[in-house]
Design a protein that fits this description.
Methylamine Dehydrogenase, Chain H, five-stranded antiparallel β-sheet, mainly beta, 7 helices
Length: about 625
């Protein structure tokens, strides 16, 4: 099931009405993919946080108003703390050894939006008031002993309307008092701390942005455009990047915290929600709610290197750095999946002959058709190389405004072609325009220019198409998969699933305006994150509006001074039947042998108001100089 932006609020906050059907992944398959234990907890486990002092995980159970405490040494629940009022976000205060949690009940008393659990005896202590109306995500500024709490503005409370924008409350944990309130975006959910630059990052779900807060001034210093419906976030302390899970477009945006620009956009599973950083192996783990998996991202390459099946509707996620494990809350089957994180040795094993899928799709053929051209451009590629290999020959293709250009890619893969997840075509590469939305500025050529016109097909989500100048009309991509277990002796060898066939995708674009000569790049990626992205052996140009070239001539002839009124009086009565060109030459002050007889027609056109006198003068100057 694909979750859209319009109904996700109900999905997140009213999970009590969800189906109670439970499914569990096959144990042998789960162990092979990294799940080493499954722990039963409370009703609708929501968020999760690691207690680094006692090596325990704390899980908020949204529907039964409790927190489950997990001993990470035994992976068993050692305590269940009743806390009331639908607990939501949770975070550990390492300075004071407290586990703070937010209350997700919009009817809760205003003085009870934040509480904490004493991790020594599991007693529930202080009630802390924050801004209206509902407290959600929590993060700690460990340098200043402050807690930052996101106040979601999706719903109001009884007699308290929801504000136009969400806010962030700043809490002094020494006395648990609110010392500042910062206005951020709309429908803000989660928050994460950038320890390198002392900043808080807040996801604004309805705005498709991230607010950047300076903890020195407690003010918003930047707003970063990301993907569709951002939710979870995690900080990569090794590379100083913030990773943002975008729920609706199934991507993760990578923010460079030095520049607050999006450096990369990574396709993951369906409806990514939570995200956590594996500091031991420098990897990000992303929960995909609608396909019950966790995507593993290598932060060195920003590519998905593994996809791990977990429980039903994975939600929150947290890393145990003591045992190098990830803990994932599964909302529908009321469990926590424990993942043994992928080490470098495991990666080497995955790239060996035992690897399930470690090859990218291969490009077998490309066709380009231009609606006004009688030519068909076709290329075939050698399948023995891991990526398409082209020669030095580049074919220039020129189309006219109004033409439809069709690009057809034919692919094969080492596994079933149903696993091809995304494909795209990119063109019109330019130096990034200053006002180009950074979310779309992620596809570069070898010279660092960005594609300003592209179309991306997504198997499990909505297609993404973009044109900076808004002068290209894209048609919906067309995908055809022809695959079977029947193969011809001596023909194409079957893949690892015993299948042969092709995956064909067609991209159609109509250019309404001229475009400079540019490259065309294509890409494809499978569900295991294997991909290729290459420039095709062609250039594309849309003709029209060619620049005028003016040649400088030192001895260029010009007409001498003349009386415009006299000239106009003379030519106004011309009929073109009896006048001699010498009369016109005399008025203009040039020898009559420089003008052919038909030039008198220009004067006749002036008299008939078909051209102006200035048009005639320019034309004559052109004649006497050429």
């Amino acid at each position: 099931m694909k979750i859209g932006k319009n109904n996700i609020q109900l999905f997140i906050l009213l999970f009590a009405v969800s189906s109670l059907l439970v499914h569990s992944p096959p144990q042998a398959f789960a162990e092979e993919e990294g799940v080493i234990a499954t722990i039963s907890v409370g009703d609708s486990p929501n968020e999760i946080a690691f207690d680094s002092e006692n090596n325990r995980m704390y899980v908020t159970n949204y529907n039964d108003d409790t927190v489950s405490v997990i001993n990470t040494a035994t992976n068993s629940v050692i305590a269940t703390v009743f806390i009331g009022n639908t607990p939501n976000g949770i975070a550990f205060d390492s300075e004071n050894n407290r586990m703070y949690y937010s209350l997700g009940n919009w009817l809760a008393d205003a003085t009870k939006r934040i509480r904490f659990i004493d991790t020594a005896d599991h007693s529930v202590s202080a009630n802390i008031a924050t801004a209206e109306p509902i407290a959600n995500g929590i993060a700690f500024d460990s340098k200043n002993d402050r807690m930052y709490v996101v106040n979601w503005n999706g719903w109001g409370r009884v007699d308290v309307p929801a504000p136009d924008n969400a806010s962030v409350s700043v809490i002094n944990t020494a006395n648990n008092s609110e010392i500042a309130t910062i206005t951020v975006g709309d429908y803000s959910y989660e928050i994460a701390f950038d320890s390198a630059n002392d900043r808080m990052y807040v996801t604004n779900y309805a705005d498709d942005t991230v607010s950047v807060i300076s903890t020195a001034t407690n003010s918003v210093i930047a707003t970063v455009s990301v993907g569709d419906s951002p939710l979870g976030m995690a900080f990569d302390s090794a590379n100083n990047r913030m990773y943002v899970a975008n729920l609706v477009d199934d991507t993760v945006s990578v923010i460079n915290t030095a520049t607050n620009a999006v450096d990369a956009t990574i396709s993951v599973g369906t409806n990514p929600y939570g995200i956590a950083f594996d500091s031991a192996n420098n990897r990000m783990y992303v929960t995909n709610q609608s396909d019950d998996t966790v995507s593993v991202i290598d932060t060195a390459t920003n590519s998905v290197i593994d996809t791990i099946p977990v429980g039903d509707t994975p939600h929150g996620i947290a890393f145990d750095p003591v045992n190098n494990r990830m803990y994932v809350t599964n909302r529908v089957d009321d469990t926590v999946s424990v993942i043994g994180t992928l080490t470098d040795t495991d990666t080497e094993k995955k790239s060996s002959s035992d690897c399930y899928d470690c090859e990218a799709p291969k490009l077998t053929k490309v066709e380009v058709h231009v609606s006004s051209s009688p030519f068909d451009y076709v290329w075939h590629f050698d399948q023995k190389s891991p990526y398409p290999m082209f020669g030095d020959t580049i074919t220039p293709i020129i189309a006219d405004p109004g033409d439809e250009v069709q690009i057809i890619l034919e692919l094969t893969d080492n596994r079933t072609l149903e696993r091809i997840a995304d494909s795209g075509t990119y063109t019109n590469f330019l130096h990034k325009p200053n006002d180009m939305n950074t979310f779309y500025a992620n596809n570069f050529d070898e010279y660092g220019k960005v594609s300003t016109t592209f179309y991306e097909w997504h198997n499990t989500g909505e297609d993404l198409f973009y044109d900076y100048d808004q002068t290209v009309e894209w048609s919906q991509s067309d995908v055809t998969i022809e695959e079977s277990a029947e193969f011809v002796e001596g023909g194409e060898a079957p893949n690892l699933d015993g299948l042969v066939g092709t995956f064909t995708i067609s991209f159609k674009m109509k250019f309404l305006q001229p475009m400079q000569t540019t490259d065309v790049w294509v890409q494809a990626i499978d569900r295991s994150g294997n991909f290729f992205k290459v420039a095709l052996p062609l250039t594309l140009k849309i003709s029209g509006n060619e620049p005028l070239l003016f040649e400088s001539k030192v001895n260029q002839k010009v007409l001498s001074f003349f009386d415009e009124s006299v000239l106009l009086d003379v030519v106004s009565d011309w009929t073109g039947t009896s006048q001699d060109v010498s009369e016109l030459a005399t008025i203009l002050g040039i020898p009559d042998e420089h003008l052919p007889p038909w030039v008198t027609n220009l004067a006749v056109w002036v008299s008939e108001d078909k051209i102006t006198l200035a048009d005639m003068i320019v034309s004559i100057e052109h004649l006497i100089n050429n």
